[in-house]
Structures are given as C-alpha cells and as structure tokens.
From TrEMBL:
EC number(s) on file: 5.6.2.4
Alphabetically ordered keywords of this record: ATP-binding, DNA-binding, Helicase, Hydrolase, Isomerase, Metal-binding, Nucleotide-binding
Protein name: ATP-dependent DNA helicase RecQ
Feature: compositional bias, Acidic residues: 469-492
Cofactor or coenzyme needed: Mg(2+); Zn(2+)
Amino acid sequence: MSVSQETTDLLKEKLKETFGYSQFRGEQEDIIKNTLAGKNTFVIMPTGAGKSLCYQLPAIATEGTAIVISPLIALMKNQVDQMNAFGINAQFLNSSLNKAEMTKVKNDVISGQVKLLYIAPESLTKEDNLAFLKQAKISFVAIDEAHCISEWGHDFRPEYRRIRSIVESLDSTLPIIALTATATPKVQQDIQKNLNMDDATLFKSSFNRKNLYYEIRAKRDDIDKQIIKFIKVNHGKAGIIYCLSRKKVEEVAEVLNVNGIKALPYHAGLDSDIRMANQEAFLNEEAEVMVATIAFGMGIDKPDVRFVIHYDAPKSLEGYYQETGRAGRDGLEGICIMFYAKEDINKLDKFNKDKTINERDNARMLLNEMVSYSTLGVCRRRQLLHYFGEQVEKDCGYCDNCKKPTPKFKVEQEVVLALQAAIMTGERFDAQHLADVLLGHKNQYVTSYEHHKLDIFGKGKSYFKLQSDDDEDEEDEEDEEVEYSDEEDEDGNPIPKPKAKKAPKTAKKKTQQQEPVEQWLSVIRQITVLGYLEKDIENYGILKVSEKGHAFLKDSFPLTLSKDHDYENEHIEEEDE
Ligand code: ADP
Ligand code: ZN
C-alpha cells in the first residue's frame, strides 16, 4: 500500500484546517504517510520537534480509533484538551476516571466516534480493557515516550514491556508507530527489539540544537552570587533553574527574591493550585525565573526561555538534554549553564543504594556518562551528539570548551596503544579495564582474564608520568571533615554536604596533575568521542575499535586532545570587580 496524491492533498488540507499549520516540519509528512501505508514506524526526534502531530494527523485522516499509549496522565490530559479544542474527538482511559466515565469512553470508542484514545500502559494491560479494545475498530497504535520500554532509558516502565504482546493479541497486523526523544543507540535497539519492530522505517532527526550554548562551571560557595550576577546581566529574560531537591528549590527562589529577582518555586511538594499559579505567572512573564525540580517542564511550551541553569547535576545526559532543551525553543538564544561538583555525583549515586544491582549498575553508567561529559575538555556539543549516536567531525565553536579551551596535548603512540589494548583483550572490555591493562595493574579482573600475560600489559606506564609542573607542592588536599547537610536521603540518613570549593585566593596558574589512570581514561574517552573506538550496543561500556580506529592503526598521525577540567582546582577568572 502506498499513499496516493489524493491522500497527500488531504493531509495538507487537514494540517491547515485542523491544526492551522501551513507546512509540515522536518519529516512529519513522510512519517505520517508511512503509518497510513500500514507500515511500522519508528520516530526519534528531539523534544519540541513535533512528534505528536505524527500520530494525531493520521488518526484523523483514517477510519477507526488510534490508540495512543502514553506514560503520564498529565500529558494525556493536555493533549486531549488540545485536540478537543481543535474540534477532534479525543479521549483518555486511565486511573483518573471513575466507572461511569470509563463506560462512557468505551461506548464512544465502540460506536466509532473517537479518533484518538489515549491510554496508560497500566490500563492497557487490564483484562476488561482488553476485551473492550477487541470490539473497537483500531486504526493503528502509537507508543509515545517509547524509551520507557528500555531499562537503559531514563524512565523505565515495566508495563511497557507488555505492549507488544497485547497489540498482537488485538490484531497482529496493526501498524505501530513508536516515538521517543531518547536517541542513544542502546535505547534505540532495545525499543526495536522489545516491540519486535526490526522492519520499522526509522526516522531519526538530528539532536543538534544549534542555538543552545553549553557551559559547565565549578560549583563553589559563590554559586548563588554567580547565578544572581548572571540573571542581572540577562535582566528581563526568562529562565529556569533546576535543583535536585524541593528544599533547594525553595531556598534558591528565596535568595533570588531577596536580591530583587522575581523568581517562583515549582516542585511536586507544592499544592497543585500554587503550582499552577506559579506556572501561569512564569508563562505570562509575571515572574522571570522559575526555580524548579525536574517536575517542571514536561509539556510546557514556552518558546522564549532564554536560559536554563542546572544548580545540581542531573542523573543522566538524557535528563540534561531534555532540561537544557527547554531553552531557546523559538530558535533564538538559549544559554545552558550547569554547576558541577563531583560530590553531587556521589550524592546522586547514593540515592541508588536501595535499587536492585541491575538498576544500580545502569544508573551508575548513566552517571558516569554525566561525569565524562562534564570533565572532558572536548566540545560539549560533539560529546552530547556522540552520546545520542551522531558522529560529528568538527567542534561547534559555540560551547565553553570551544570558546575557552583547556590546554591541549598531542598524542599518537598513546592512541595506538589504547587501540591495541582493546584489540588484544578481544574488544570485550570497558575503558577502566583497558587503562588498567595499559598501566600494568594486576587487579582481580586483569588476572582472571590473564591479561597480565599480554604483550600490551604495562606498556602505557611510561606515559603521562606524574610531573610537578612547578615548584609548588599541593599539600592542602588532606582528608577534610565531611559536613552534613540538613537534607536526608530516603532512609533518613543525613546527606553529606557537597563540598563547595572556595575560589582559590591566589590565581594559581597550574592545574593539578591527574593520576595516570585518569589520564589514560581521558584519552580513551576522548578517542571514543572522536570515533576511533566505538561503544558496543549490546553491552554497555564495552569498547571496540571502529573502522576509523583500524585506519589509524595502519597509518597513524598526531592527534590533538584536550586536558580534562579539574573543577576542584581550576581557577575561573574572576570577571567581577
Ligand atoms: P514533541 O512531542 O516532539 O516534543 P510537540 O508535538 O509537542 O513536540 O510539538 C512541539 C510544538 O510544535 C507544538 O507547539 C506543536 O503545536 C508545534 N508544531 C508541530 N508541528 C508543527 C508544524 N508542522 N508547524 C508548526 N508548528 C508545529
Ligand atoms: Zn563546542
């Protein structure tokens, strides 16, 4: 089945008439046609790109009811309201409805009036709902936020794993359209496998947000001062500040207000009417800054957010990308600043301590990616896009690492050694293991695989020797006493206070030398971003030599790499007087 000219015209007409848009965006038209042709479709597009239209429009252009599986009741309601405002019969089925309301929805669907039925995965799997769906005339099934099916996504929902078998029990020929804004190759593969959609046509658009400026700053005692200064310089512009805890949200909002900045808090602990009022005030520009937990932002369409500040590091790069993505949706300026402290990462890791081993390992990997992104001196955009499976050959020129590069160093033999280490160990190990082998660390893993008997074992020892660049000795790094914050984790244990470092009093030129293992890890991570090593999709963290890497081994040349950030000691030039 392919799509006729007639349908093409009809789609254009509906786009204009129903949604009021004169043109499709990006690949929307091809996506819609693919679904209408009865094929399976897999859409990976960043947030705000216009995914919803990809199932809303075909739903109204075809007979029957389209089933939209969506994980969040609030989002469902938003979309249903919006569709109803467009004059389309859309309804939802979820736990927020009472019996009578449910019966009404079901009757409307069976009588063929409903074009879009939004349904939560939990509701989908209920027996009586299944029986009802069997009586309905379904046009196709849309699976929104499809990354929820993957444990490697940031929002794993076990019920999503049952979608495929349920759809099959309804009608195995129903076309499926899966949509997500999470694009890591691992998650992508997981979605396709779980939905049994290897045959699906893939539409993946670039995740590059050209107008966003990415910057990471060391988190120190002066963080509030820095934020206030930033907002004052950007006076009148709307922005969001993301904090990890509700308490922090309140505190920061307070501090800003005391300093004459109109800021409002937003978190799930506030009454819903206050939340709504604050959101409205932000949307209507009565407040310039929203200080919020990640509860804020989903489904909020404010195109002129000019900055997003991360007071604390997010749990994953997916989260970071989503949250920073709320800046500059109109295509104009969007400044994204994150304050980074290793202690915050440790704190996030602590939250995982009650999870299953598997969940904890996954969460840790996501955190490690966050650390890597934050500390590497490589172009931020290149790193982000690489994380989402896009290989970029050039630095962007519009991020902190591009604008204010860390010192560079040249490598060639080091890269050869790292690649050889991967090959000699059978391309089955992660960066840490490769670094251990290169440095001749006889640890349990290395010996259990007999990697200490390999030629490459210890070959990397003579590189990156600890050198003191100056005469100055760094002696003040003794164990400091841990300070506890008055926040508690889920178990009621006090959370160690992030050690906000004081800005060094004297402008120390030198940065502290990294340990050799850190340096090897940095090289390995950098050449991964540059594409000489590639991540195994099946087994997270495992590195293989890419074609580019093999070519390098045949004909090597000097590569320029960047020193990592050392946020604990790095001296940020004080711009204020
Ligand atoms: P996503 O689901 O990918 O995050 P949405 O579907 O919420 O994105 O769409 C983001 C915004 O873009 C919405 O305000 C939507 O109305 C708008 N939009 C979608 N398609 C078009 C189009 N073809 N022309 C203009 N605006 C569009
Ligand atoms: Zn850059």
